[in-house]
Amino acid sequence: MTAGRKPPGLRDVTRGRILFGGDYNPEQWPEETWQEDVRLMGAAGVNSVTMGVFSWARLEPRPGERDFGWLDRLMDLMHEHGIGVVLATPTASPPPWLGRLHPDTLPRGADGRTERWGGRQHFSHSSATYRRYAAAITEDLAARYAGHPALTLWHINNEYCTFDYGDEAAAAFRRWLRERYRTLDALNSAWGTAFWSQGYDTWDGILPPGDAHYLKNPTQVLDFRRFTSDMLLECYAAERDIVARHTPHIPVTTNFMPLWTGQDAWRWAAEEDVVSVDLYPDPRDPLGAQHGALVHDLTRSQAHGPWMLMEQAAGPVNWRGVNHPKPRGLNRQWSLQAVARGADAVCYFQWRQSRQGAEKFHSGMVSHAGEEGRTYQEVKRLGSELAAIGAEVTERHVRADIAVLHDWHSWWAGAHEGRLSTEVDLPDVLHAWHRALWESNLTTDFAHPEHDLSGYRLVVVPQLYLLTDTAIDNLLGYVRGGGTLVSGFLTGIADEDDRIRPGGMDARLRELFGIRVLHEWWPLDAGETVACEGFCGTLWSEEIEAAPGVTETVRYRGGELDGLPAVLRTGRAWYLSTLPEPEALRELLGRIAADAGVRPVLDGLPAGVEAVRRGELLFLFNHGREEVKISFMGTHRDLLTGMTVTDEAVLGRYGVAVLKP
Amino acid sequence: MTAGRKPPGLRDVTRGRILFGGDYNPEQWPEETWQEDVRLMGAAGVNSVTMGVFSWARLEPRPGERDFGWLDRLMDLMHEHGIGVVLATPTASPPPWLGRLHPDTLPRGADGRTERWGGRQHFSHSSATYRRYAAAITEDLAARYAGHPALTLWHINNEYCTFDYGDEAAAAFRRWLRERYRTLDALNSAWGTAFWSQGYDTWDGILPPGDAHYLKNPTQVLDFRRFTSDMLLECYAAERDIVARHTPHIPVTTNFMPLWTGQDAWRWAAEEDVVSVDLYPDPRDPLGAQHGALVHDLTRSQAHGPWMLMEQAAGPVNWRGVNHPKPRGLNRQWSLQAVARGADAVCYFQWRQSRQGAEKFHSGMVSHAGEEGRTYQEVKRLGSELAAIGAEVTERHVRADIAVLHDWHSWWAGAHEGRLSTEVDLPDVLHAWHRALWESNLTTDFAHPEHDLSGYRLVVVPQLYLLTDTAIDNLLGYVRGGGTLVSGFLTGIADEDDRIRPGGMDARLRELFGIRVLHEWWPLDAGETVACEGFCGTLWSEEIEAAPGVTETVRYRGGELDGLPAVLRTGRAWYLSTLPEPEALRELLGRIAADAGVRPVLDGLPAGVEAVRRGELLFLFNHGREEVKISFMGTHRDLLTGMTVTDEAVLGRYGVAVLKP
Amino acid sequence: MTAGRKPPGLRDVTRGRILFGGDYNPEQWPEETWQEDVRLMGAAGVNSVTMGVFSWARLEPRPGERDFGWLDRLMDLMHEHGIGVVLATPTASPPPWLGRLHPDTLPRGADGRTERWGGRQHFSHSSATYRRYAAAITEDLAARYAGHPALTLWHINNEYCTFDYGDEAAAAFRRWLRERYRTLDALNSAWGTAFWSQGYDTWDGILPPGDAHYLKNPTQVLDFRRFTSDMLLECYAAERDIVARHTPHIPVTTNFMPLWTGQDAWRWAAEEDVVSVDLYPDPRDPLGAQHGALVHDLTRSQAHGPWMLMEQAAGPVNWRGVNHPKPRGLNRQWSLQAVARGADAVCYFQWRQSRQGAEKFHSGMVSHAGEEGRTYQEVKRLGSELAAIGAEVTERHVRADIAVLHDWHSWWAGAHEGRLSTEVDLPDVLHAWHRALWESNLTTDFAHPEHDLSGYRLVVVPQLYLLTDTAIDNLLGYVRGGGTLVSGFLTGIADEDDRIRPGGMDARLRELFGIRVLHEWWPLDAGETVACEGFCGTLWSEEIEAAPGVTETVRYRGGELDGLPAVLRTGRAWYLSTLPEPEALRELLGRIAADAGVRPVLDGLPAGVEAVRRGELLFLFNHGREEVKISFMGTHRDLLTGMTVTDEAVLGRYGVAVLKP
């Protein structure tokens, strides 16, 4: 955050409406199409478009030249029609001339090869030249549109996600390391370079961890990920500071990819006025709605309140092996689900499906089928519904008694190539734990392990391989303060430098959970299960000797671990040394939550029905294709239909109700 | 074709005989083996050998030196024994010294790495130096053997199939683009560079579409494929013009790989005097014979008559994971099948199996087992049979009432990485449609969508994703003129620049087929099927709103598309929005063909029996291992046995009959 | 071997004890941990540690500097505690400064990319600079510790396994080729460069066989593998000669990887005083014990007697997809199995599990769980058992009547990418044949095909694709001399230059086995079997015409090969043209062995029980988890328990008995 600036926020953009719209790339179309666009936007209730994301070559067709005329006309056109503009800095995709004239702006891969233009995102985050050109176009863009009445929000770059292993990045990496470690001794110690004769005698000898003969140094890899996230954040902050200087009253965002490995999103979110995310669940994924809910919960937690769904698809995407369209009603349902979980903006990539280019099979709000197509017709209906509920919904908060902990540094360290099992993938583990809570309609926030957790009744740690001492103290303090903590395996293994804690797991945590000796990790093969009392475990198991103080255990049954504890409880601290199958994990977490005084949003819901409260509103979703009946107490008004419902609601296929008491 | 030259043809080579022989690489053997070779060739009825394909290093052991003596002796030896020589320009595999002294002759891959010698085909099609050396050796070869009585046919290079992403190729690509588009504006428009900020401000900024960060520009990729085919064709034409200048009376060919993606074979075939192809079905493939038939039909259509099977294997190849030999009788059967479908030449790679080098496990007509080996013994029998039927067969034509349309540009565009389903693979789709016709003994030609189709009763379009306006007019005119047209899905989607047609499919075609709105494409997962009235569809389905004028439909049953049309007929135009399972497609096409007045070669054949007519001869093939009885009308003479058969023929395992009324 | 040096051997190190210990990397730990280490070592009976393997950067922190102080203290500490030191030259992993200051020391991959530091083994075997620095540090190390009383054995480098395709390696390859072939004509002939126009006109034109457009020249690839093995051996020999000069009385070894493709281990073993190997079977592999036995047998044969197990894991490794720990008792059992099969040293990588670096999840004798952990507790028990049996075991020999032949050159040639079946993998085939013998408790040596075989009653050739004339003469002489020979398919196919023998298989071998014509190879698909009389064959089959003199055959049943011989016996020579399923191969080899007068160690053992004799001691192993009873004749003392057993032993889960008559 730029010092001294009172941060504007999403409320300054929404002003009581749910934002509805999407990326708009009119430079791909003749101007006559623009008129058609505003007509269709108007009919669909579109009130926001994002422009300029990939317009650099158009705005600066030759180095230093500027062509803003077309954008002037579009800004005016939008304003005329009452549509706000999310204006993007176009720096995600430099024009071909930049790479041609300045090869130093091009990134190099782990294999040393230079990436060239012809796709997108071919820029080095460390390139001084790139940053200079990016700053210049950002400066001119901000200066030109600072006072334009259509401007509502700044969108910096797009889906920051690149790596660079080239020479300029190597130099920057060394500078970053000097700042972190000050001395080579400290670095050699943190990286454990005594192993495999990797001791550095000069800073100059340090390289990005490119392709190597065999396993790479894990802390070097970890630091390179930290560095990369920080370099991208520098790029973001530089552009943010420019636009904020011109328009202190206009908030700034950059759009995340959901649960993306490349950015420490906790740290990034703190640098944004508005937190926004792109979200593309597979319409065929039976757990697509849960994946959506997880991303909603995570983004809401990063935003500490309402957030922005910057991109989703009205129909199919084009980057999977097989790209399925959204069946009738699904786009509406998933959009309203985002609203239920805190979104005050429902936007798409993109307004009008492209006829050319690499994404011409990625859907738009207006598909190739045009106005008559089912896709646009459904968008239109959704637009009117969002307009109807907007005033009741925006700026309302979702409250949760449960926090799920997640940390990017832990993810990075735990994913090292030399780990015990490549079957253990953190996103899968996170999804498994979140699913157990979601299926029980237990609303959850996400939190960082060093956050203040005292407001939560239950803290869930699916897996935090790396925990700083501060984080460990935080967890211990949380339990001491009366909180209930439940943790999965591979938690507390490594310190901040990815140094294994003595005993294979932090001693304080072992004491907390009642683990006397952690003899061996027993990872399971793909598809293998391990029998426990009452359920089967997956992915992992452990040879643990319990401490005397353990209150309760579930034991392994049969096999090498027969009789050893699979689940341990010591007071309010639970430890799961395996990942129970979905139903068992749901049952177990439900019980733990109940003991901790946490209730589901509604009890006794049919399978496949999701309930979530936002403010006083109760949102209900039927994720199935068969009609369901839902019982609850009292009389509500369904804001979508305007009808009054008493004690029971009926939801058809992909049905949604937004009930106000 | 060189202007003013009256083209010689295959008839000038065959002169009433079926060519029989193969690649002969005597430089791998001591001269005493040559004597053995001609003895075994004589015994087997070999009348043609191909020499010099990989002899460059032998002919030009050092830059500019020439060593023709060994080839002189071989040419003479062949002539002595009455064996014609197909003489190859040796330019497919330059000698090591060329790359060493002229690194600019080496191609670079999409990843920027230079390919070096040590294998074969390590030449850049765009290299001026390569072309100069290739022209020089071609010139001297042509000059030396122009008058040699053994020379029957020129064989230019071998299986043109290379790519180059290097600097000289990049420059050539830019020249090619300037010629195609004239202005950068035209190129930017055709490529849709407004998407992802790819607008070019100079020709110099344009690169070959090498590896990129994410999806590449599809039209750039399409144009690079067009360019590559054209560059290779330039290489071919340059050598062809040299030899044609020396020997205007000797025809010229280059050998295609079957259904190879790298060459626009329609365009190439027009530049050849003789169309030849290499064909290597897997002996284990239950549809190997159909694959053969497809390639025969395609090659015959490119040749507009008799064609040349330049390479096949008498036994196993060595480039599959597991390479199976040909069971007893299969080599004979597949060779005669090629003759039935128009081949006037049955040749092999290679005469004598190599003892050394990368292909020493690729079979030869004389295998490692030698004269006593089963392989040679079967070759010998085949040779005598071909000699027996030659006079009755050569130059006779195969007639077809059905044309299957295929176009390389459409294939290239439709294969872009950013498409909706990677499960849809054009060769598979082509094979599926051809199979349905082949199993019904409905003889088919192939044709280009802009060819004159008026001679056909039925035109079949398995898939033509890209169609030019000319092609669309051609199809519309064909139907207006009384023809029956049946098309599969993903046809008419894009224009010549791979720009999606408004509505997602060309409006004229939608009207032709009775499609009012094409709402969404519904690709199917691998192995998934969709129920339709009476059959299951595979690979794809569509959400279509039919137009009022539709004559007949088959509907989807169940699922999201329940009740929507899967197959539409509007007059004589049929559209299939899914790929029916094999039996259903066969039944449907059989019915459409019958309605269009097309009859199978023979009715009521047992499964696994193929019947095809060439001129007045009726060829029958039993592709099974069990004896079958085949009924037909009248008395014929079996040219293979000399026996008379009346009303019925009995074919044993892999049996063949060639019946003359 | 350095001329004139009377070689010391393993007995000079063991002196009546079994060596017990492992790699020790104290530079990763503070000095206070060293005290803890020697205490735990003492308690566990550790008598040997390997130091310095990856200490180059510590010993030479900057070019030319030396830091031996820490190692001095450790050598003294070990000596104080009666622990011998296997001292390693640290040349496997150069310090970062070497690559930085001397990029010519870095190797390049087949794709031309330079490998850089950050992992390990980033050195070019051909780099003069690398060799110079390696010699210098070796010289100083040897000089310093030549007289140190703790020094027992030199360990040169570590797991030599690198390739280099760079320019200096290319030059060395050319020198190597000049020495091998003298003239380019000889090379062109050996490589068969007449194929694909690869004829070389200068030595300079020859490249390492890097990535190519299509299949590479197989003999070039073969020679490059020979060259690579020889270059690495030069590196080894140079360091060996230095240390031997300083300490002629101290033996020298380098640790092999088991059945590793990169070194001609027969040739290497001849250059070592002590043969040592690293061995990491997967604890989950049901045939892990057999894999161990195979490596034991191979290493013992290379050593011509007792050998050293240099590295194994006390628990999991960290380089598989899923890395399983060793269940209780398995580490002990597999260690004693190595002793039974000739090991006089049972060592580990590594003493104390690392807390940092790429292998921190690779187990140690002291695991992360520390002294209380099960792993260390089991190590301790094993140490005391080894101490108890040491005097009875060391220097005793294992005797075998069967030799299994294996040759690296044959492996290399047979693995060429252009072969008939990629399903045929020599290590698999070797394991299948060895398994059949191992499961019958038929003790086997390994031998090279040119070794003197006259001491064996039965010689088994799983597959020797390439056989020199000398080897063929050796085999023929062996059978003539009364020996029984049994061979699998793909034997005797190629000569030393990988030139296919006329007839597809050496004529003398065909005569020996009774093969008149080998018509075709019929490789089988993955998972496919072929029916034979009484069993099923896998992987391969052949179309063979038997010679009149064949004594006995087993025939194929059904399919294309119906009635042809699958197994042929001609006198004492057997040929198997397929790989019988495990039970059938065991039965067949058991019968052949019995006929040749070879008896199992014990008859009638339960499944899963292994018996092997070392000297007069009988070792028994129960590889199952259920108790078994084993019957034998007479009274023995079990050296592990001190108990007397008569006629029967009972072995529990993973049980072991060491019985002395």
TrEMBL record, chains A, B, C:
Gene3D superfamilies: 3.40.50.880, Glycosidases, Golgi alpha-mannosidase II. Pfam families: Glyco_hydro_42, Glyco_hydro_42C, Glyco_hydro_42M. Residues 23-388 form the Glycoside hydrolase family 42 N-terminal domain. The active site is at E159, E311. Residues 400-598 form the Beta-galactosidase trimerisation domain. InterPro entries: Beta_galactosidase_C (IPR013739), Beta_galactosidase_Trimer (IPR013738), Class_I_gatase-like (IPR029062), GH (IPR017853), Glyco_hydro_42 (IPR003476), Glyco_hydro_42_N (IPR013529), Glyco_hydro_b (IPR013780). Residues 608-660 form the Beta-galactosidase C-terminal domain. Keywords: Glycosidase, Hydrolase. GO terms for molecular function: beta-galactosidase activity. GO terms for biological process: galactose metabolic process. GO terms for cellular component: beta-galactosidase complex. Substrate binds at R120, N158, W319. This is Beta-galactosidase. It comes from Streptomyces fuscichromogenes. The lineage of its organism: Bacteria, Bacillati, Actinomycetota, Actinomycetes, Kitasatosporales.
